[in-house]
Amino acid sequence: MANSATDTRAAIDKAVEGKTVVDIVARNATEHPLVPAIHWRDGDRWKELTWSEYRARVLDVAAGLIDLGIGKGDFVALMAANRPEHVIADLGVVHAAATPVTLYSTLATSQVAYIGGHCEARVAILENLDFMKRWEEAKPELPNLEYVVLIEGAEEYADVDWVLSWDELKERGRNRLAAEPDLVDGRSAQLEPTDIATLIYTSGTTGTPKGVVITHYNVLWTVESTERTLHIPKHPRLVSFLPLAHIAERIASHYLGMWYVGEVWYCPDMTQVLEYVQEARPNIFVAAPRVFERFQAGLMAKLEGEEGLKRTLAMAAIKTGTEVVRLKQAGESIPFLTGIKHTALEKVVLTKLLDGLGMSDVTIAISTAAPIAPELLEFFQGIGLPLYELWGMSELTGPGTTNLPGANKIGSVGKPIAGGEVKLAEDGELMMTGGNVTGGYFKMPNETAETFVDGWVLTGDLAEIDAEGFVSIVDRKKELIITAGGKNIAPTKLEGLIKNHPLIGQACVIGDRRKYLSALIVLDGDMAPAWAERQGIAFTDMAAFSQLPEIQAEVQKAVDDANEDVARVEQIKKFTVLPDEWTPESEELTPTLKLKRRVIHERYETEIEDLYTGA
Predict the structure, then answer these.
(1) Is the separation of the CB atoms in 74 and 39 below 8 Å?
(2) What is d(CA 393, CA 459) in angstroms, rounded to the nearest whole number?
(3) 8 Å CB contact between 290 and 245
(4) Beta 488-489 vs 481-482: how paired, if at all?
(5) Which residues is 149 bridged to in the sheet?
(6) Which of 138, 184, 162, 141 is nearest to 26 (CA)?
(7) No. of H helices and E strands in the chain?
(8) Global model pTM greater than 0.90
(9) 559 near 572, Cβ under 8 Å?
(10) Can you tell me whether residue 285 is helix, strand or coil?
């Protein structure tokens, strides 16, 4: 195994040797000039750029940035939704031999000030006036910030000399290129594979965000490894909708789209993703578990509205498909009649279900960024969607391990990607090595030394590796709960079980140094109104709805169901349903929708104590 991984890593090293992201864009524009590269919606119309047109826009922006004084190794901040200007700007920065740093659109002014100051951004390219307000407030703390480029709304700052429009930036670039046609090519030629392709700032669940240094080598090694792992054909169709500040989206659409000479549909609003999927008919689809949960809920709600034979056949097809998946996972043979029934229903019903979702052309779908419920994987695999769980992190340039067709163990996160190796530290912490291991944290030598050791990254995840090499994540090392009785509890698993109910948006298990476990539960604001309508319950607002006796009973049922799957000491004894919704803006969640446990414990101290009063 080790020798095989070592040989594969050497082969990947050779395949990407001497290359940078700039080389891949140039290759695509030269060898595939007329192939569509990016798509977006402008009002009621869909627009696109081919690879040659895409690169031409990138060169204009790169020259414009050089004209503003951006030099090799400088940092440029980006803050925008998933739209063409975002990725054109990103690659424009790279072609100027500088480094793009995308910030989450949900960040508060103080967080903007920290990241903008930490990376010493000289230019910020922002989508609109909402983002501009935060940067303008932060500007006194950003001594290196010289210019802000506004994609929309620059006319409001017509008299401000440090603000210019997106069109002005491109015009400055075109003028420089007219006078110096080789300007950008000359600058790009200065890039080395060891130069920084991007900084990804971690979402900061336990403290200050850290800027993960991702080099051109890391990017290209990871996409080459992914190609050898997934075996995806060239020119795939993809949909980009997760934040580009997250490494999952950067790899899944931006970098893989380049590597595979693919075409990407950019969706600026996550609530519209199904509409974009139905337009794009993607071959690869990567999303967080919550997206698949909502797809499932929407599909089941639609089927429940059907009548007669159509509904009966659909439910039978789903049940049979799920049964087949479970039998395969258990290593059991499929009964003859079950197989015949499944084959028939697959042709008559399941293909239509996938086609309605826009996913009939998907060759592989990936769930990542958070644990996914095994039942959800069984559901989608049962209806014919090749959905698999992948585990990764920013420090690994994204992917670390993944399940695959023919190597799929539901409940695990699969095996290492091609060229990667994993092992466990003495305390059970998962470690990984490979060309995807990044160079550490920007300007944080102590944190880098703690996490990156002799080419291995200490992931912070406690894990198990079985005899076949499948990795299972137990929990985050820093999030383990130690009860008053000394029992170690992994809260994430239990929280995931509770969130299996479509009505529940978030759950936070409490119990450190306590006699028993309890939970704070928050309803899903998107799902609650539709759920209430189906149940014949009036919905006015979340605060009142959350306290209805029917809702308390439904949440109790969800908790009871979760408790059945864990040991007695791990069961939830008490819970409270909060009237609030947790969002990145309200600060209980990170931009990647992970729990900020410290914030939650402090903010809901009274509610937590009430759960233990008299205990």
Answers:
(1) no
(2) 8
(3) no
(4) antiparallel
(5) 125, 164
(6) 184
(7) 24, 26
(8) no
(9) yes
(10) strand
Residues 141-199 have pLDDT tens digits of 999 999 999 999 999 999 999 999 999 999 999 999 999 999 999 999 999 999 999 99
Compute the residue count for the chain.
615
Element (H, E) at 200: strand 196-201
Task: Quote the tokens at residue 365.
Answer: 């779908």
Instruction: Give the model confidence (pLDDT) of 70-90 as tens digits.
Output: 999 999 999 999 999 999 999
- Written in H, E and C, the secondary structure of 521-557 is EEECCCCHHHHHHHHCCCCCCHHHHHCCHHHHHHHHH
Q: How many other C-beta atoms are found inside a 10 Å radius of the C-beta of residue 90? A: 25
pLDDT of residue 614: 64
Pair 279, 54: CB distance under 8 Å: no
- Tokens 């980009």 -> residue: 240
| Residues 128-152: b if buried by 16+ CB within 10 A, e if exposed | beebbebbbebbeebeebebbbbbb
Residue 116: helix, strand or coil by DSSP?
helix
CA distance 572 to 595: 18
Task: State the average pLDDT over residues 314-334.
Answer: 94
Burial class of residue 255 in the structure, from the number of CB atoms within 10 Å of its CB (0-12 exposed, 13-18 middle, 19+ buried): buried
Kindly give the pairing relationship between strand 75-79 and strand 99-102.
Answer: parallel
DSSP 479-512: G-EE-TT--EE-HHHHHHHHTTSTTEEEEEEE-T
**Rounded to whole angstroms, how far apart are CA atoms 402 and 409?**
10
Token pair in block for residue 260: 């595979």
User: Measured at the alpha carbon of residue 395, what is the angle toward residues 238 and 509, in degrees to the nearest 5?
Assistant: 90
